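Posting for a labmate who doesn't have an account.
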Amino acid sequence: MSITENKQLVRRWFDEVWNKGRADAIDAMCAPNAVVHGLDGKQTAGLETLKALHAKFNAAFSESRVYINHIVAEADVVAVHWTRTATHSGDALGFEATGRTIAFGGTLFVRIENGRLAESWNYVDQAGMLVQLGRPDLARAL
């Protein structure tokens, strides 16, 4: 795939999986043996962990929207700096929903192989998210 096609795939990833909440798009867009780094406190994980995190996030937040601030690519790697807004409307994080609308950011580096996401490195401002939710006690534990 070309650099342009790789960037389009990653844009589609954010739109389909995170903005539209489509869990089925995870299997459609990822290689079956995809490796995910830095997800939910784990060094490396597979698609089942990603799907579980996706479900947990969608149970905890509504009105979620990811905005791509920057996207660059070289060869088979795409880097994205993103911002997300969401309303904390569920208790899936282990504490009662606050109803607060928050904004937090992160970066993603993803390697593409045969038109599918094969390996990713994720960095999310979880501490900033938890502070905005009024749980700085949990942010200190990260």
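Reply:
Got it, the structure tokens are right above this. The chain is about 35% helix and 45% strand.
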